[in-house]
Amino acid sequence: MHPQLEKITREVIDRSHRTRETYLERIEHARAVWPSRKVLGCGNLAHGFAACNAAEKADLKADKKPNIAIVSSYNDMLSAHEPYRMAPEQIKAAIDAAGGVCQFAGGVPAMCDGITQGFPGMEMSLFSRDVIAMATVISLSHNMFDGALYLGVCDKIVPGLLMGALSFGHLPGIFIPAGPMPSGISNKEKARARQKYAEGKLTREELLDSESKSYHSPGTCTFYGTANSNQMMMEIMGLHLPGSSFVNPYTALRDRLTEKAAAQVLRFTATGQDYRPIGHVVDEKAIINAIIGLLATGGSTNHTMHLVAIARMAGIIINWNDFDNLSKVIPLIARIYPNGPADVNEFQNAGGMAMVIRELLENGLLHGDILTVGDQRGMQQYVEEPTLEDGVLKYQDTLKASRNPQVISRVKEPFAPVGGIHLMRGNLGRGISKVSSVSEEHQVVEAPAMVFDDQEEMLEAFRQGELERDFVAVLRFQGPRSNGMPELHKLTPALGLLQDRGFKVALLTDGRMSGASGKVPSAIHMYPECINGGPLAKVRNGDLIHLDIMAGIVNVLVDETEFHGRIPDESSADNHHIGMGRELFGGFRLGATTAETGASNLFVVD
Q1: Are 433 and 332 contained in the same domain?
Q2: N or C: which end of the chain has fewer CB within 10 A?
Q3: Which pLDDT value is given to residue 122?
Q4: Measured at the alpha carbon of residue 423, what is the angle toward residues 23 and 478, in degrees to the nearest 5?
Q5: 600, part of any domain
Q6: pLDDT at 187 over 80
């Protein structure tokens, strides 16, 4: 094990000692009566199995078989979740055959950042994670279950499901992915079309045709954004079956993996001999593994918030220093769009998670001794690939090297010697930068600020030709307490186009960028956020900004006395609170913690 990895892990364990111990005591208390439905009165229990068939009722009355909950994000509008349509019946059949009972416990909402980008709905996106966590808890609140299966894929859905699942940490749980859609046009072609449209060189009809060739069928989007970063993290934490993250939907292998997960959870209930509650699976080492996977693959910056919130639900305290310190020892060994041309299907074909995990394990850069939902307790099975032999699921340990070194490299020959996410610090606060997709010549920008309080305001300036210059776009009042911290991916085509024209450009904001954020340097998630008097609210047009994403430096180059004497401009602080249901989220905005503490309402930060 790399000594720095051991040191950081020990720091997290020591920092979390009190809160983790309290959490584990709560888990132990929750399973004091097992199965928990024994505490239910006759009327309560009768309600709980009223819709079951006679055999299931008999089994639940006699406590003969474990009862497994399904919590699903299924809807047929979102491509990533449509493949879950037939999953409940498939899972119920597999659990029945394996000797259990299964009930569909509840659904959780699932919204798509790809649809809401740049529109009011995006201002509820981050808080939908906490809504999903609460919906998961409600689904499991009936004292009926001995284990659970969680069906979800995209940006806030998986973090929300896991946060809710950890509130029922005494229950074993397995996450079942849906898989990515087959590849359409390349992500490079898609980005080129978006930039041409931003220039006015493509019609709306032509752009829609391009987008429809990219997002074209059931399954996750094929770029490596937050949704696919979710899948990577669930596997490297041991919450997916080995090799299951990036298998396409509606294939025989996908079906067998779903059935295997359904049967597998029965092995881990407290009634069996191999109890593996999800609150024990998600420990400090599993959380560290998730950060390592994020850095090694150039994953989404959104997880610098989601992982903090997930960890906190399990009594584990991490912060951005942990990400930054790990980034110094974890190399970038995967190139998946936007940090390379390949999509997730090409990543899977190159060896996928099995290859990444093998490289990290063999070089002492991953905890292999974690509890998982695989056939063994550690990570060893996760270097094997699932295959079908005469329709039967088998695992084969035949992958010894990357099938495409341009997509997955070796630790000793990385694409970059450091991980894909850096901590940003300076007199403008604390934030995050995704560095894996930014070419060397754009990693340092020093230019005058152009201050905006709205995405449309900036895009209108672009359309009017006012941005044909070197500048740092300062987008204010985009934090969780201001307007729910929307992603600002709508700005990417314009900024990318200006960069291609030879201008030095960068983005500085207390908001978020998409998990697909790419070649434009940025410092995002900045806090203290503007609505709390953060220093970004003092920046004025023309102030010189220095941004160095590799060194992790972000400063305004203004006389210190003058800058501190400025009164923060809060004139635009309340522009985004009404319409499209945003008025219902006032409590979420008011109670949100900082970006570094998870931007959540679900726990109190000490």
Answers
A1: no
A2: C
A3: 87
A4: 85
A5: no
A6: no
